[in-house]
């Protein structure tokens, strides 16, 4: 995306609504989902001059950007990949890659949190934004996001024979595995035999970097509290439609929550697959 020396950014998103409706909605809790994961916010999104503003730091960090704030100069610096953007609190101008752009609504500090218009961030980062007014839900997806499909509990009861055999032969071990069938990439994360005391595993997100898929897997360990000693075998199973997103050449796994995850794969090369 190219910016002019001074560019006034006009947006015709669904966020531009009558002031009376905006003020009414601003009093309601609004949920923000970034790449299908709910953003946990200490300060709710707010309407300012009929534009929806969101907490800058948690929103941008959820997209992998680094945010720093110099309180003495009131300058906010955002670094993402090879790009750098500089905001000044209470100023409508933004310096992006040595060019200037107009935010429309100045970056404001509200309850100690920097708030920035969502529609400006969407344009700046080329985000896809959908807003369900009735449910008070905003869904945001970045260009590098890979949608994944998760099997419901009902679907897990009637899995295809080869998947059921794969899962059952793997659930006794701590591992992350993949298979490609009918041009779908299946990912299976297992935890091994555990008690019922809070153990869980979830493949939370997949993002793309060229031909590399970054797979984020969250493991939850048991608390130190006494638990019922019933053995379970937690696992998670998802798949990605490669017809839609294209086939990666490498999978990189980012694991969180394990005290010792040294036995898990970190990087695997995918074989060439054709229809």
Can you offer a commentary on this structure?
By secondary structure, the protein is mainly β. The protein has 2 domains: 6-141, Copper amine oxidase-like, N-terminal domain (Copper Amine Oxidase, Chain A, domain 1, 2-Layer Sandwich); 149-269, no CATH class. It contains 6 helices and 24 strands. The protein has helices at 19-26, 56-61, 118-125, 153-156, 161-170, 242-245, and strands spanning 6-8, 31-34, 37-38, 46-48, 51-55, 66-70, 75-80, 83-88, 93-96, 99-102, 108-110, 113-117, 128-132, 137-141, 149-150, 174-181, 184-191, 194-195, 200-209, 212-220, 231-232, 235-241, 250-256, 267-269. The strands form 6 sheets. A 6-stranded mixed beta sheet has the order 1-10-9-8-7-6. A 4-stranded mixed beta sheet has the order 3-2-14-13, with no helix packed on it. A 4-stranded antiparallel beta sheet has the order 4-5-12-11. The longest helix is centred in the middle third of the chain and has 10 residues, at 161-170. The protein is elongated, with a radius of gyration of 22 Å.
Gist of the model:
This protein has 6 helices and 24 strands. By secondary structure, the chain is mainly beta.
* Multimerization state: single chain
Tell me the strand percentage band. 35-45%
Number of helices: 6
Shape: elongated
Helix/strand order, N-terminal first:
EHEEEEHEEEEEEEHEEEHHEEEEEEEHEE
Give the helix level as a range of percent: 10-25%
Distance between the first and last residues' Cα: 34 Å
State the secondary-structure class: mainly beta
How is the CATH topology of the largest domain named? Copper Amine Oxidase, Chain A, domain 1
The CATH homologous superfamily name of the largest domain equals: Copper amine oxidase-like, N-terminal domain
**Rg of Cα set:** 22 Å
| Total beta strands | 24
- Order of strands, main sheet, comes to 1-10-9-8-7-6
Q: What is the averaged pLDDT score?
A: 82
